[in-house]
UniProtKB/TrEMBL annotation:
<dbReference type="InterPro" id="IPR015422">
    <property type="entry name" value="PyrdxlP-dep_Trfase_small"/>
</dbReference>
<dbReference type="GO" id="GO:0070189">
    <property type="term" value="P:kynurenine metabolic process"/>
</dbReference>
<comment type="pathway">
    <text>Amino-acid degradation; L-kynurenine degradation; kynurenate from L-kynurenine: step 1/2.</text>
</comment>
<dbReference type="GO" id="GO:0030170">
    <property type="term" value="F:pyridoxal phosphate binding"/>
</dbReference>
<dbReference type="GO" id="GO:0047804">
    <property type="term" value="F:cysteine-S-conjugate beta-lyase activity"/>
</dbReference>
<keyword id="KW-0808">Transferase</keyword>
<comment type="subunit">
    <text>Homodimer.</text>
</comment>
<keyword id="KW-0456">Lyase</keyword>
<dbReference type="GO" id="GO:0005829">
    <property type="term" value="C:cytosol"/>
</dbReference>
<feature type="domain" description="Aminotransferase class I/classII large">
    <location>
        <begin position="60"/>
        <end position="440"/>
    </location>
</feature>
<dbReference type="InterPro" id="IPR015424">
    <property type="entry name" value="PyrdxlP-dep_Trfase"/>
</dbReference>
<dbReference type="GO" id="GO:0047316">
    <property type="term" value="F:glutamine-phenylpyruvate transaminase activity"/>
</dbReference>
<keyword id="KW-0663">Pyridoxal phosphate</keyword>
<dbReference type="InterPro" id="IPR004839">
    <property type="entry name" value="Aminotransferase_I/II_large"/>
</dbReference>
<dbReference type="InterPro" id="IPR051326">
    <property type="entry name" value="Kynurenine-oxoglutarate_AT"/>
</dbReference>
<comment type="similarity">
    <text>Belongs to the class-I pyridoxal-phosphate-dependent aminotransferase family.</text>
</comment>
<dbReference type="GO" id="GO:0005739">
    <property type="term" value="C:mitochondrion"/>
</dbReference>
Amino acid sequence: MLRRVGPSLRHFLLEMKSSAGYSSYSKAKMSRPVQARRLEGIDKNIWVEFVKLAATYSTVNLGQGFPDFPPPDFLKEAFMRALSGENHMLHQYTRAFGHLPLVKILAQFLGKLLGRDVDPMTNVMVTVGAYQALFCCFQAFVDEGDEVIIIEPFFDCYEVMVKMAGGLPVFVPLRPKFPKDGKLMSSADWQLDPDELASKFSERTKAIILNSPNNPLGKVFSQGELELIADLCVKHDVLCISDEVYEWLVYDGKEHIRIASLRGMWDRTVTIGSAGKTFSATGWKVGWTVGPNRLLQHLRTVHQNSVYHCATVAQEAVAQSFQRELELFGKPESYFVQLPKELQQKRDWLVQRMDAVGMKPIVPEGTYFLVADISEFKSDVTDVPDSDEPYDSRFAKWMVKNKGLATIPLSSFYCGAHKNKYNHFIRFCFAKEEATLKAANDILQKWKQEKTSP
Ligand code: PMP
Ligand code: GLN
């Protein structure tokens, strides 16, 4: 009956309406459960929730991580050339695993950074942002019951993606050491306990996910910390998924060390990057994975059977921008030199303002996030002991609704019991224009004055 179309359709519908057939047809609603079991308990998403709150209430948005300043001209110009230039083939499909100019330049660039030959065809794969790179990794490597070690606080999707693949996340926290001398805390004061980390590895461990520089703390893992992780990976024959999307956003002359460059690690590591963070264009959603063919071949299997391919024009523009950066490598005109310099100034300004206002900042060594302690502002937002919702989440919601300032609660980057342990911090994104940061400071300053005036 469903095949009846065209001029006879109206007649058919009228017939159905006037017959017993219509009522039985309209009652034929599905009653069986439709949701796949792997989606159970993961329907809520911190970004969807807080982006909506920010759009509804905020006048100043330091929540979701994206720059509100424009991306560099050379990137936009490369996109315009790709879009309206003579090569109309840039509007068509390109190579599934990455547009040739992009994989070639990424291989050259990352080969230089990793100190090894990187083959563009087998060691690099382009993805729809780092998100899809992560998704490919978990789908490609994690089987039912496999354990994946996640360092807390962590970028929230790691846990969900492990679970969707049938794996079991195993958490290990960075433990804060509060400075005693009245100095500001640094993200470097959050460290792994080596014995605790070692205790999480077992024969069920398939992989560890590392994120350095770390979202949300801004921690840049030291050589020693990376060697500790690397030694455990080698000892237990475990994979490392290394999310390095903030690789260029490192301050105070600190060095970002790529775990894949450590002894024994290339063969077991997939390194993930993002043009969104690298060139301040998060909406472009161009990401990549780099690693040995032995691992990448499985990512290609997931990619070719799901996304297959990423937007050609954006890949071409990112390729040209990397070409520029390769030519200017280490020079003052390089965007990879200029961007961290500008962001460091913004970080320093915000750290100083936050400290003055009494929201104790944890000085980040990298990324464009700053986590601050809200304890001194607690009296304004009622606590509900034993509530399922961590205090910082209630606080961040109250603040956006009542003060117009959007942030992200730190507890969103924790799981289970730790959500309520680390529940008095909020995360600010400082990749913002001076006016935006000043407006945020004005809100906090005014709030502080209201609190202290009789
Ligand atoms: N990893 C981390 C640590 C992130 O903060 C983000 C968010 N941007 C991603 C991965 C996803 O990056 P992309 O926007 O390139 O998908
Ligand atoms: N990575 C970004 C952040 O941490 C946002 C990710 C998202 O919006 N899904 O703010």
